Amino acid sequence: MTRPSRVLVAFIDALGPMQLEAAASSFAFAPHRGAVEGVFGYSSGAIATVLTGEPERGHGRMCLFASSSADPGPMSPLAWLGLLPRWIHERGRVRRAVAKLFAACTDNTGYVALHKVPPAAFRWLDLPERDDIFGAASIGGHETFLEKARRERLRVATARWQDPEPERFAALERTVRRAPPDLTFAYCAGLDGALHTEGNGGPRGREAARAIGAHIQRLRDALSREADVTTIIVGDHGMADVARFVDPRGLVAALGGTRVFVDSTLLRVWGSPNELEVARAKVLGEGWPGTWLDGSDLDAREAPTSGAPYGNAIFVLEEGAIFAPSWVGGRARGMHGYDLGGASTRAAVASDRALPASLTKLTGVRNAVESALGMS
After folding, report:
1. Secondary structure (DSSP) of 144-177
2. Cβ count within 10 A of residue 166
3. Domains of the chain, first to last
């Protein structure tokens, strides 16, 4: 009698080739390993690419915040935060409470975080992710492999990404033990947080990798009862150690009314050709380490450029430098989000089965998962 087949996909935030090598013993059950080309931008774009098999220009995700196509934008009510003193409205506790209220009032089940965005910018900003990304049927009009499996009547198990990691792990393990599904999707974020905090090679990163590896092994044990299991591990990017901090505040002030957004590694700019040329001259005049990317450069990186949701042009810092303070945080010891080609922009893949030779980009993960499930 043929044993049924099950597939376990473990998505590990910040698992690049270097991080996988450093934690090799924690993932000994997945000896077939490789590296794939990531995406330009951040995890919101990478996760969508893994799930849909589409590049960012296809599904439309790249960064947490985008420019709204409406005027005023859907986040404009949050501009009232500017009525409060800065030392109050920038408190993490205040921002988290307001983000939770905003999500509830707008029926947003996606990832909502306000970080340290200046209140006035909320008048023109938007959050592209409005639905729980693991429960959404599609992203940017493209069906996810999770939804395709559900549509083909396969049993699918995911966990609430909103829960703290230990609770999320325990909940998914209970689900899998109770009724082993055909497809299990495990979301693991602890490594990313540890590496941002201490950089590569520290004890928190090692412990996070051990905890994630143990979680995956427990899932494998539960799934392997009366079935064959294929395990696929995939990261979204690696992590670079931070060696330089760049203060963008003077430049942002000098740009005056030009619309900008300061991510940890990207200075995104919107405007007319003349405004962009002025901004480019001022940015390059600062002597910061990095590269100015115009529309054609972003097209070459398969970024979403139609309507310029993430900027008409972007200055990306070189690997190892970050903007601090930025609109999404302060100083960190580890960071990602650099230009393609850097070591930290590559993602790790690993499996207990031989990896297909065609798996060279994040866009190929979906095909690998569907092939393991026997889906067309």
Report:
1. -HHHHHHHTT--EE---TTS-HHHHHHHHHHHHH
2. 11
3. 5-58+135-239+343-373 (3.40.720.10), 66-127 (no CATH), 243-331 (3.30.1360.180)
Residue 120 DSSP symbol = G
pTM: 0.96
- Could you write out the three-class secondary structure of 42-54? CHHHHHHHHHHCC
User: How confident is the model over 69-127, as pLDDT tens digits?
Assistant: 999 999 999 999 999 999 999 999 999 999 999 999 999 999 999 999 999 999 999 99
CA dihedral sign, ordered 129, 245, 300, 348: negative
User: Which ranges of 106-260 would DSSP assign to H, the alpha helix?
Assistant: 145-151, 165-178, 190-198, 203-223, 249-254
Question: For 273-316, what is each residue's pLDDT tens digit?
Answer: 999 999 999 999 999 999 999 999 999 999 999 999 999 999 99
Q: How far apart are CA 138 and CA 145, in angstroms?
A: 9
Q: Of 251, 329, 333, which Cα lies nearest the Cα of 292?
A: 251
Structure tokens at 48: 């969508």
